[in-house]
Amino acid sequence: MKKYIVTTLLFLFSGILVAQNIAKTIPGYKNSKLSINVRIADLLTRMTIQEKAGQLNQLNGGVFTGPALNDAGQKGKVQMVRDGKIGSFLNVIGAKETRNIQEVAVKESRLGIPLLFAFDVIHGYKTVFPIPLAEACSWDLKQIEINSSIAAKESAAAGLHWTFAPMVDISTDPRWGRVMEGAGEDTYYGTLVAAARVKGLQGNLDDVLHILACVKHYAAYGAVEAGREYNHVDVSRVGLWNKYLPTYKAAVDAGAATVMNSFNVVDGLPASANRYLIEDVLKKKWGFKGLIVSDWGSFGELINHGYADNEKDAALKSLNAGSMMDMESKVVIEHLPALVKEEKITMKQVDDAVSKVLYFKFKLGLFDDPYKFSDEVREKATLFSPENRAEALKAARGSIVLLKNNNQILPLNSSTKKIALVGSFAKSKEDLFDFWVANGVANDAVSIYEGLTAKLGASAVDYTAGYNLDNTTNDQLINQSVASANSSDVVVVTVGISGKLAGEERSLANINIPDAQVQLLKALQKTGKPIVVLVNSGRPLVLTQIQDLSTAIVQCWILGTEGGNAIADMLTGVYNPSGKTVMSFPYAVGQIPVYYNHFNTNRPAPDSGDGAWKSRYRDIPNEPLYPFGYGLSYTKFDYSNLQLSGNEMKKDGSIKVNITVKNTGTYDGDEVVQLYIRDFVSSIVRPVKELKGFQRINLKVGESKTVQFTLTGTDLSFYDENGNTKLEAGKFGVFVGGNSKQTLNGSFELK
Ligand code: BGC
C-alpha cells in the first residue's frame, strides 16, 4: 500500500514537472520531445472553452497587409486571432500573407496556437493543371498523383497547409457545373483516382512539400436533383452504398486527413448533421480518425433546410452529429460555450473535436515552426517552375479525348500548309481556366493560337474570330472565317462554352453547342474543307448537332496553363491521343442522367429493331452519343482472343482474364484496355456493366500484347443497404474492350 502511495505521488510529481516544462516553452512548444498526444492533452488543460471554440472556427481570410488591414472586417479578424477565436483561415494565400497573420496568432494570442491555412487548390496552385474531370480521362493514375503532388508542393511553398480536395462526388449529370471537379460517373474508377489524388497531395505529411487533403463533399453531393447546384438529394441506401460512398471510403483508406460535409440532405437529414453518415459510417465503420469540416456555412444553413430552429440549434445539431469545424457560419464560436454550460454538449465532445485540429497542427510541425510553410524564397523558386509546367503539359495532353476522326484527318500532315483557325476560344486564355484556378493567372497560359503558331509558324495559321465570346455572331464574322477557310487546307474550329461556366454554382439547363457556333459551322461546312472541331468545356456537352458538321471532334475540356501547347502537339501528331471519356456524352439533354452502368429494368430495349413497349424514348436513342470509356487514337487497336482461366470460380479464389490487343494502325500508341463485369442474378439488382479493371498499354505499330486481369471476390461483391459486402454465387459476365460499349464477352460461374 505504502509502495503504491509513493509510486502515485512520484507519478503525479513527474506529471507536474512535465506540464511545467511544457508551460515554459509556450508559445510554440518548441522542439518538444513529447508525443503529440501528450502535447495535445496538456494544451487542452490550458484552454478556455472560448479558445476551444476558436479552434473549431474557420473564417474566410483574405489579405492581411497594406490598406486592406484598415478594413473593419479584416481588423476585426486580426483581433479575433489575438483573442484565440479563430483556429483556421481559408483564402489567405502566399508566404508573406500567411506569415503576417500567423505572427499575430503565435506572438499575440494567449496560448500562441498557430493557425491552419486552407485553400481550394483543385487542380494546381499557380501552375494550372487540367480540370480534374479532364485529368481523369487520362486513366493515368501515376500522372494524376504527380499532378496533385505539384499542386501540393506549390501550395505548401505559398504558406498553405490544407486544400479542400479531392472532390470525389460521383455524378451522372453534366448539367451540374461541378462535374468538372470529379473523376466522372464511375464509382470503381473514382475510388482509384480519389486514392491517387490523396497520396499526391499528402505524401506522408512529414515534409514541406505536401499538405492536408480534404475529401469532399460527404456525401452524395453529385446526386443533386436535375443537376441544379445546392439542390435536394434523394438516394436509396443501396444506391448510397454502392454508387456514392465508395469513393469517399477510398480517400479515407488512402489516409485523407480531413473530410468535408456536403450541403445536401441524405435520407432526410442534412449531411452536416447526419449522425448516420458521420458517426456510424465514417467514424465507426470506416475508422476515420481525422478532422471533419463543414462546407461553407453548412452548419448555419441547417436553418434553411428546416432542420434547425436557430443558430444555436444548428451548432448543437451539427456537433452532436459528429461534425467538428465550422467553416464560415460562425455558429460554433457564438454558441459553443453556452451549449457546454447548458450541458447540451459535453467537454469531452469538444476536446475530441479540438484535439483533431491540434493534432494536424502538431503533425505539420507548426508548433515547432509556425512559419515552416511561409517561405518566400521557396515560394519564388517553386511556383510555376519549368518542371511543374512540363508536368502540366503531360497532364494536358493525356486529358484530350479524340471523339471522331473521319478520313484520318488528324493528325495534320505535311501537306497541310495553311490552317484556318476559327473561333474566339482559340485566343482566349481565360477559357483555358475555370472558376477554381487557385492562384493561376490566365495571362500565363498558352492559348491554342500561341501553341499552334509556336509549332508551325505564324504564316501557317490564319486566325478569325467567327463568333464573340458572348455567344453571338454576325455575317461579317462568319464571312471572314469562310474566306479564311476557303484559302486554307483545313479548318480547325474551337467551340464550346466558357471555362468560367465550369465549377460551383454553374449549373446549366442547356448544354448544347451555342447557336452562334452551330451557325458558323454550317457556313464553314459549305466550303467543303475538312473541319476539325475542338470542344472547350468543363463537362460533356451535347454534341449531336455538330456531328454531321465536322470531320473530326476533339474534346479538349479545360486544360489549364499548357492547354495551347498540348492541343498543338495533338493536332500535329507530336502526341497521339489516348484519353477516354469518364462521363457519357448525352445524345440530348432530355436523356440526362445517362450512364453506362445503368440497370436492365423490367423491359430492356433491344439494341436494334422494334422497341415497342420497352424502356425507351420515342424520339431519341437510349444510348449516349459517346459512351463511358470511349476515345480514339491515331492508330487502331484490334481486340481478340478473350480467354478466361476457367468456367468456374470459388468465392475465395480468382479467375484470370486474358485478351490480345494488337496495334493494326500506322502510329505507335497507348490504349486503355478496360474490363467490365455483370452479376446476372443477385439479391439486389445490379447494373448491366461495371468497370473492374483497366490497363494502359503502349503498342508499337504492328505490335500485339496479351493483357491479363485477375478477378477476385472483392470485384464481384456489392453492398447491401446496411453497407455489408455480399458475394453471391451465380453467373457473371466478363466484357473487355477499348470502351464500355464495344467489348468481347465471356462468362463464368461463381460457386
Ligand atoms: C464549396 C466547397 C469549397 C468551399 C470553400 C464551398 O462553397 O462547396 O467545395 O471547398 O466553398 O471555398
Mind sketching the topology for me?
Elements: H1 2-25, H2 36-46, H3 49-55, E1 57-60, H4 72-82, E2 88-90, H5 95-108, E3 116-119, H6 132-136, H7 141-157, E4 162-163, H8 187-202, E5 214-218, H9 237-253, E6 258-261, E7 265-266, E8 269-270, H10 275-285, E9 291-293, H11 302-305, H12 311-320, E10 326-327, H13 331-341, H14 347-363, H15 376-382, H16 386-399, E11 401-405, E12 419-422, H17 448-456, E13 461-464, H18 475-486, E14 490-496, H19 515-525, E15 531-536, E16 552-555, H20 563-572, E17 637-644, E18 648-649, E19 654-663, E20 669-679, E21 690-699, E22 704-712, H21 713-716, E23 718-719, E24 725-726, E25 730-737, E26 743-750
Parallel strand pairs: 1-2, 1-10, 2-3, 3-4, 5-6, 6-9, 12-13, 12-14, 14-15, 15-16, 18-26
Antiparallel strand pairs: 7-8, 11-16, 17-19, 19-22, 20-21, 20-25, 23-24, 25-26
Helix pairs in contact: 2-14, 3-13, 7-8, 7-15, 7-16, 8-9, 12-13, 16-20, 17-20, 18-19
Bound molecules: beta-D-glucopyranose.
Beta-D-glucopyranose binds at residues 90, 120, 164, 216, 295-296, 504.
Please give a structural write-up:
32% of the residues lie in helices and 17% in strands. By secondary structure, the chain is of the alpha/beta class. The strands form seven sheets. The chain has a six-stranded mixed sheet with strand order 11-16-15-14-12-13, sandwiched between helices. Helix 17 (448-456) packs across helix 20. The longest helix is centred in the N-terminal third of the chain and has 24 residues, at 2-25. The model is unreliable at 1-28 (pLDDT under 50). Beta-D-glucopyranose binds at residues 90, 120, 164, 216, 295-296, 504.
